[in-house]
Amino acid sequence: MSTFRTLDDLPDDATVLVRLDLNSPIEDGEPQDNRRFERHARTVRELAEAGHRVACLAHQGRPGGGDFTSLSGHAAILADHIGRDVGFVADTYGDEAVAAIEALAAGEVLLLENTRMCGDELPEASPEEKADTEFVRTLAPLFDAYVNDAYSAAHRKHASLVGFPLVLPAYAGRVMQSEYEANTAIARKEFDGPVTMVVGGTKATDVIGVMDALEGTVDRFLLGGVAGELFLRAAGHPVGRDLEGMDLFDEQWAANHEVVEEILAARADEVHLATDLAYEDADGDRAEHRVADIDEKTVAYLDVGTGTVEAYDPLIRESDAVFVKGALGVFEDERFSVGTVGVLEAIADTDCFSVVGGGDTSRAIEMYGLDEADFSHVSIAGGAYIRALTGEPLPAVELLEASAEA
User: Fold this and answer.
1) Which of 131, 263, 264, 361 has the fewest Cβ atoms nearer than 10 Å?
2) If you average pLDDT over every residue of the chain, what do you get?
3) Domain 185-390: top CATH class
4) How many Å is the Cα radius of gyration of the chain?
5) What does each C-alpha distance from 121 to 92, 171, 284 come to in angstroms?
6) Which residues contact 41 (CB under 8 A, 6 or more apart)?
7) Which CATH number, 3.40.50.1970, 3.20.20.70, 3.20.20.300, 3.40.50.1260, labels domain 7-175+394-405?
8) Is 270 helix (H, G, I), strand (E, B) or coil?
9) How far apart are alpha carbons 403 and 311 in whole angstroms?
10) At what angle do helices 225-234 and 204-213 cross, to 10 degrees?
């Protein structure tokens, strides 16, 4: 277990600066409600109900990106989830922000403007450098405590994540606490039966790194997505290649084929590959090819096939723990949701410890009417989840621990 302090350790009657991760899809200029608002609302609501004065920091997109926008719309969504007003100020640490923070009364909540609109926020730098920015030096004296609830950004060395814990007593919010405990379980917990990892998604480089790092920890990997095709390519099948106009496979193959081939050679009995793959036929319907029958890749494969799902099902059901990183197909299209949803249904129906990681994959639970309560933990983190699985340090978590020790 971590040694950081949580909300249970926070003194009464505090003015608290809370870092959330409300980064959301933007449609027609407006943020879309998602699981992150619901999760972070628990921390903010608990602080407000305890009578603290709460000011929140969060980010949205990156400068120059199409989703880089103000947080004014985020405040309204957060308010709906908390069940109380959330004030908003279009300023992060200027005079307007300072005045709004100083005016907070007990139980009031304020959301400050997008941290990434501040020049001090984004460049990765040491915590000491970030603590010495005008951003941190201006805001810190206004607060009694800093609460980091942004586990999904904990791998970043940005000012709002690593600067404040050096100058304020620092605590973990409920999202930070629950995400850390679940996502480090693969290295920390003892399991009596098989430990299975479902590996998919489009970022094969990330998941191949996880597979390499978890040698001896995971008993078997069930593959799909881009990584699954790359492993099939390494096994001698004519897939895992880009077709014209595609940019998914060849570059990742060049970067990872040596590791893929090493994993396959050394741990072939642990790596379970798709036996069939699904594609869109000329009529726009789902169709499937048996991998053994593919002589040349002529179509884009968008899901594992039904035979693969049937083969993976008993392996999941006899597992003591299942970790999911990435979808097995393009589940957003119902025709190609068979792999992802089939695996999630098997996990939900099994009495095992289960963690579904990554914001995209977790969306399938909601989209297809599965009950989140049937999983031990549904993570909203992407990069931080990868780091937790591979045992890499998370700077924001390390600083919470250091603050507790200090």
Assistant:
1) 264
2) 95
3) alpha beta
4) 23
5) 11, 20, 46
6) 78, 81, 82
7) 3.40.50.1260
8) coil
9) 48
10) 70
> By the 8 A CB rule, do 92 and 135 touch?
yes
CB distance 139 to 163 below 8 Å? no
Q: How far apart are CA 285 and CA 269, in angstroms?
A: 34
Phi then psi for 314, rounded to 5 degrees? -65, -30
For residues 322 and 320, what is the distance between their CA atoms, to the nearest angstrom?
7
Residue 159 DSSP class: I
Helix (H) and strand (E) counts for the chain? 15, 17
Q: How far, in Å, CA of 12 to CA of 385, rounded?
A: 32
pLDDT tens digits, one per residue of 71-113 = 999 999 999 999 999 999 999 999 999 999 999 999 999 999 9
For residues 59 and 68, the answer to whether their CB atoms sit within 8 Å is: no
Q: Please name the residue ranges forming H helices in 120-271.
A: 127-131, 134-139, 174-183, 185-188, 204-213, 225-234, 250-266
Kindly report the length of the chain.
406
Closest CA to 195 of 204, 187, 203: 187
Give kind and range of the element (H or E) at residue 272.
Answer: strand 271-272
φ/ψ of 194, rounded to 5, equals -60, 145
252 within 8 A of 205, measured Cβ to Cβ? yes
Q: List, for residues 336-349, the tens digit of each pLDDT value.
A: 999 999 999 999 99
The pairing of beta strand 276-280 with beta strand 286-290: antiparallel
Give CATH 3.40.50.1260 domain extents, the chain: 7-175+394-405, 185-390
CB atoms within 10 A of CB 296: 7
Rounded CA-CA distance 234/203 in Å is 17
